[in-house]
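Give me structure tokens for this 206-residue protein.
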Amino acid sequence: MINAAGFVLMILTGTQIRYVGLIDILEFKTAVNWHNWIGFVLIGNYFIWLLFYLFSDKIKVYHPELSPTEHFRKSFRQMQYYGYGIFRGSPNPHQVSAYDKFNPMQSMMYQVVMMLLVPVVFFTGILLWDVTRFYGLVELFGGVRVIDTVHVLIYIFCVFFIIFHIYMGSLGHTVSAHYKAMFVTGYEEVPGEHAGEKPEGNTPAA
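Here you go.
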């Protein structure tokens, strides 16, 4: 919840900073201050998340499929489901469990996002927060323009990622099931394999 709200606010304040003069919802200084402080909150929250997963058995959720053939096979089945199976009422080929909550496509995406893009956007954000203090690092990585370009490209990716996330969130066994798990209960309901069967249990949403 903190993460989702924080990233939305970062996108909104970042848009205000980027397009000052075209968008004037907040004063430039206010937008910068909010952007900085929310950024530090998200960095702290990220390390809490990282430590929790590193030092608990929940890290299994992010274990990659080591067989390229198996990963491709499962990903292809998932693409078929998203491409047309879901519109025909076909069952999801991936069955969610406490230690296997991501399908192959989600697993690959979240590994890239959480282990690469999020750390990079935080790192570039810190460099841009105080260019004078981190002048040596800024120059080492190609200067302000390069750092800013990387930061903005990830910002653009995050905008589309959140929009896509909102759509994907509606594809549960009910339209609101995933949203309820993310924002209300913290657990995802796992429906039975057959119609009318009582769910066997709940799976943590995060």
